[in-house]
Design a protein that fits this description.
27% of the residues lie in helices and 16% in strands. Strands 1-2-3-4-5-8-9-10-11-12-13-14 form a twelve-stranded parallel sheet. It has a two-stranded parallel sheet with strand order 6-7. Strands 15-16 form a two-stranded antiparallel ribbon. The chain is built from ten helices and 16 strands. Residues 422-445 are annotated as: Disordered.
Length: 445
């Protein structure tokens, strides 16, 4: 009988290609642990360890730039960067000059050409020089820009944001949060009620190669590569949303509302934008009601391809039936609502009322509907008793039974945290490192 022999193979005798392939299959936690074996192993783990980076303050950004070798920066593919500057008591301060912040961000962006996702959370506006590096980020597909400060005190100009987005060559998904209108594009808001914060002094932002000087929010529709657009906590009252030529084929749109304006004003703004971008939209998220009945007619609806409708937890519950009914002209297949725990009973009741309307109107009304979901956002500060909990359970049971009778799929559960960069990357991302005695960056968790 032939004898079989086995030979052992140590980690360091493996070809580098195999080592990289093995490490690439580890999650970030395991890769970080494995990187501590020795210096050679650490070098192999760099692409995985630094694939996703999260930097939570200017102080941490300084530490990152000073302690991490620049040769590691090209490994970064997902970056969540916040320029918040807090004192020892956690209070926001402004100890960094805007140009200093811009220099630090520019230094990192220029050294990370493989970025595919970027979340830039700023404390107010940045120096205009921040625009230029985005022209070199050819792999960047997902961009989030948010203002972490009070809009009245530290506004983030729409002109800066629009210029950054338009400068990014292959941008597909854009998420904006708390962007402030520029007085150059919103003179009608000066000195009128209600008060809406405006940016002054942003006329120094240079003209864009194809947008020219029109760097208002509606000009985002002229970015041909854009497929998904999210705008929250931002004034959407610019009339140019209705007249700007649409060069992109938006598939997903998520619109919030402006807390400085009334519900009626926000509704008008939402309907105007829906009508402008509607022909290509497959998925829409609403925070305001829709009362224009033109959306209810299949022959003339501006949303002929809408299949997924999401309703945010800030949506007025009393308007659920009217709004959903008014969107009956679209071939909606999935209807999902997010709500807070205290609103579960009311939301389930509203959905039951809508389903009753669907039964009354016959098979042509929402004929494509297949699924209704409710996601419950936990309220950490609420104190519910056993009776209230039982009421919520019974309400969800009634809704699901009604859906079952109508042969619809239904799920009710806790809202999942979005793992994407719109709300920040996962907690498994790299923290700001410091150098250890052996010369390797030491990760602080």
């Amino acid at each position: 009988m032939a004898a079989f022999t086995t030979t052992s193979c140590s980690w360091h005798t493996l070809p580098n290609e195999i080592k990289f392939a093995i490490v690439a299959n580890l999650d970030s936690v395991d890769a970080r642990a494995f990187s501590k074996v020795d210096l050679r192993t650490y070098q192999v783990c760099v692409p995985t360890v630094f694939k996703t980076v999260r930097i939570i303050s200017m102080e941490r950004l300084d530490g990152f730039l000073n302690n991490v070798p620049r040769t590691y920066f090209p490994a970064i593919q997902e970056l969540d960067l916040c320029t918040r500057d807090n004192d020892s008591n956690g209070q926001e301060v402004n100890s960094y000059h805007p140009q200093t912040k811009a220099d630090a961000i520019i230094s990192l962006l220029l050294a990370a050409p493989r970025l595919t996702k970027l979340a830039l959370r700023t404390t107010g506006s940045l120096d205009r020089r921040i625009i230029a590096p985005f022209a070199y980020l050819t792999e960047l597909r997902h961009l989030t820009i948010a203002n972490c400060s009070e809009e009245e005190r530290c506004p983030l100009s729409e002109r800066l944001v629009v210029s950054i987005a338009a400068t990014t060559p292959n941008l597909e998904e854009l998420s904006l949060d708390k962007i402030t209108r520029s007085v150059l594009h919103a003179r009608e808001l000066q000195g009128v009620y209600p008060y809406v914060p405006l940016v002054m002094g942003d006329e120094d932002i240079p003209e864009h190669p194809f947008l020219g000087s029109d760097l208002s929010l509606p000009s985002l529709l002229r970015i041909p590569t854009l497929k998904k657009l999210t705008i929250r906590d931002t004034h959407l009252g610019d009339a140019r949303w209705a007249t700007t030529p649409v060069a992109c084929r938006l598939e997903v749109m998520d619109l919030g509302s402006c807390y400085h304006e009334t519900e009626e004003f926000n509704r008008i703004c939402t309907e105007r934008i829906m009508a402008a971008v509607g022909p290509t939209i497959d998925e829409f998220s609403l925070a305001t009601s829709v009362s224009d009945t033109v959306f209810a007619k299949p022959s003339v609806t501006p949303l002929p391809r809408l299949r997924k409708l999401h309703i945010s937890p800030f949506f007025p519950v009393d308007s659920v039936v009217e709004t959903v009914s008014n969107l009956a002209g679209s071939p909606i297949e999935t209807l999902s609502l997010q709500c807070y725990e205290e609103d579960v009973v009311d939301v389930c009741s509203a959905l039951e009322d809508f389903l009753s309307v669907r039964v009354e109107r016959g098979p042509e009304f929402y004929a494509k509907l297949k699924q209704i979901d409710v996601s419950v956002v936990a309220n950490e500060h609420a104190d519910f008793d056993a009776e209230e909990h039982e009421e919520r359970v019974e309400a969800t049971k009634r809704l699901q039974e009604f859906c079952r009778d109508l042969q619809l799929t239904s799920a009710v559960g806790k809202a999942a945290v979005d793992p994407g960069l719109i709300h920040g990357p996962s907690q498994n991302s790299v923290s700001t490192p410091q150098k250890s005695l052996d010369g390797r960056p030491r990760l602080l968790f």
